[in-house]
TrEMBL record:
Occurrences of domain PafC HTH (ranges): 10-131
PANTHER family per the UniProt record, alphabetical: PROTEIN PAFC, PTHR34580
Chain spans, region Disordered: 325-345
Ranges of residues in domain WCX: 245-318
Originating organism: Naasia lichenicola
Upper lineage: Bacteria, Bacillati, Actinomycetota, Actinomycetes, Micrococcales
InterPro entries named among the record's database cross-references: CBASS_pafABC_assoc_protein (IPR051534), PafC-like (IPR028349), PafC_HTH (IPR043839), WCX_dom (IPR057727), WYL_dom (IPR026881)
Highest taxon of source: Bacteria
Bias (Low complexity): 326-345
Pfam families tied to this protein: HTH_PafC, WCX, WYL
Residue intervals of the WYL domain: 153-218
Full protein name: WYL domain-containing protein
């Protein structure tokens, strides 16, 4: 028995779901169909009779024989089974192209490889529907479950088993510290992998780059914090009012390269020339700013605050000094070799 009488919107959703089900399960019994949708057999029979007088009018705006659904009435009335013998409009719905289906299937394969989506039957079912519902057979694609980092596999196992992990971590500033973490989620961005976890030494959620981890150990301790206990944003990195505010000048066409460094609703100001704009960024520390400017070498210029300009200039100068030192050493070695050669002669 249905738990409550269906409202109008419930009936519409029920009928829209029922038609594809009946087409896919040809000859299903009324009892089985009713159980599948949680309605009574009589409610199912009423719905089938309604479907049988539904359709799409033709070009004349009149209903012809081919414009209505039809069922096998003998089988329905005598055997209490439902078989749709004619359907309309279903095949006219938009369908993905083979390339679109292949792209979506690749995305689903990637999602299936993530720990939080492991063994998800819904993803497998959707993949199968995409493969069969495209305009042509989708191109064969395969997304490896291997994250390209040896630390992904043990972290994935720890996350699924809800086990705490410990590892030595090198921060962006170069500091090293042993961390004890409850894994919450594994993400990838721009070919880098990250672990979001509850850091027991900080008492908060922290993000760790896998390539900065060493001596990773999956402990025998159960995690005290899981993903359901905290609110994890879909965005891997989010700006905070506590971040440093930096103004940079760059071509307007390069704004998209700043990604999540730009706060929502950012407005730009005219730059020093017609093709340049000034944008305000938020960064957690100057080290992160140096890394960003290195990626935008020759494209972005830091304007202020002065401390930011000094930090970037000092970092660039130290890098240049390394090249100068290497070049001087090479010249000295060459000079020594030449002198030795002359002496031998």
């Amino acid at each position: 028995m249905s738990a409550r009488p269906m409202q109008a919107q419930d009936k519409l959703a029920f009928l829209l779901s029922l038609v594809p089900f009946l087409i896919e399960h040809d000859g299903v019994s009324v009892t089985d169909a009713a159980a599948r949708f949680g309605v009574t057999p009589e409610e199912m029979r009423t719905a089938v009779r309604l479907i049988a007088i539904s359709g799409v009018p033709g070009e004349s705006r009149q209903y012809g024989p081919d414009d209505l659904f039809d069922i096998d009435w003998d089988e329905f009335e005598e055997d209490d089974r439902i078989s749709i013998t004619h359907h309309v409009a279903i095949d006219d719905s938009p369908r993905f192209s083979s390339r679109e289906a292949a792209a979506l299937i690749a995305g689903l394969q990637y999602l299936s490889s993530l720990p939080e989506n492991a063994d998800r039957a819904a993803l497998a079912s959707l993949t199968a529907k995409l493969a069969s519902g495209s305009t042509g057979g989708p191109a064969a694609v395969a997304v490896s479950a291997d994250g390209g980092d040896a630390r992904v596999a043990p972290l994935r196992e720890a996350l699924l088993a809800r086990r705490r992990v410990s590892f030595d971590y090198r921060s962006a500033q170069g500091d090293r510290e042993r961390r004890l973490v409850d894994p919450l989620r594994i993400d990838s961005e721009n070919q880098s992998w990250y672990l979001r976890g509850w850091d027991h030494s900080r008492g908060a959620v922290r993000i760790f780059r896998l390539d900065r981890m060493s001596a990773l150990t999956v402990t025998d301790e159960d995690s005290s914090t899981v993903a359901a206990d905290v609110q994890l944003s879909d965005a891997l990195f989010e700006t905070s009012p506590d971040n440093l505010t930096i103004r940079v000048e760059l071509p307007e066409s390069a704004l998209t390269l700043l990604g999540e460094y730009l706060p929502d609703g950012t407005r730009t100001a005219p730059g020093s020339s017609a093709d340049l704009v000034i944008a305000t960024l938020r960064v957690g520390h100057f080290h992160g700013l140096k890394r960003l400017i290195a990626l935008l070498s020759g494209v972005a210029t830091v304007l202020d605050p002065p401390e930011a300009r000094a930090a970037v200039a000092d970092w660039a100068q130290r890098g240049l000094d390394q090249y100068t030192h290497t070049a001087s050493s090479t010249d000295a070695a060459s000079s020594d070799a030449a002198s030795s050669s002359s002496a031998d002669k």
